[in-house]
Amino acid sequence: MKDFFEAIQWFFENILFYPLDALRALELDSWFLANILNWGFMLIGFVAFLYWMKQLKKFNDRNEENRESTSHSFLG
Length: 76
What we know:
- Helix content is 71%, strand content 0%.
- The chain contains four helices and no strands.
- InterPro entries: DUF6341.
């Protein structure tokens, strides 16, 4: 049973985490490239934020939201 868990450990450390180890080693040469995953996540978040704002503007322009003070029970 111990060999099974050591095989899982070897697989994760030597195979699955290899790209992250390469990024960590790259930090000494280029900080920007070493953080490429972070830049990608920030870009995805920014694009999602812009899409969300576009959708909110579309609903606001169509005046679909009930803005009366009685539309929500906690406001009245």
